[in-house]
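Exercise 7.
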Amino acid sequence: MSFSTKLSMVLLLSSLFIHASLAEMVCEDLPKDVCAFSVASSGKRCLLETEKGMNGEIEYECRTSEVIVERMAEYIETDQCVEKCGVDRNSVGISSDAFFEPQFTAKLCSPICYQKCPNIVDLFFNLAAGEGVFLPELCEKHKTNPRRAMIELVSSGGAAPAPISDISEDIVFAPAPSPI
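Solution. The predicted structure, written as tokens, is:
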């Protein structure tokens, strides 16, 4: 082979590798063990769903939801955040019932989760808001009196959102760097 042919082959292979590395992240292409708490290139959340397989057994599939995450795309949550925030990648769907479990709320509101895992916090912030609960307020109450926070959550059916100025200064909602 001539030098120019070899050079052309190297350039062709290089362009293929570059193209592959620039490919979009699509939820349906993710393995089930990283699906939950991931965000596709489109900015839409990935979610784990069950489907009955041809053999009658339940199979798990990663799907794209219609929920858009602002300021975050092509993101797979770290195993550290999953562990520190007390969530489970194998759970199908999420529920506001998790807020009634003091252990879950303690983990979600802990500084290592709340300040370092914005993807998970954003997800539960929006879930709480849908129930009429302002997550920073719930976390603040949980920090000072966990039992009282749970009683208020149950009895009120949700809390009115607090003004932005009432958010603790040590709470940060900045996106963490992507592990990819």
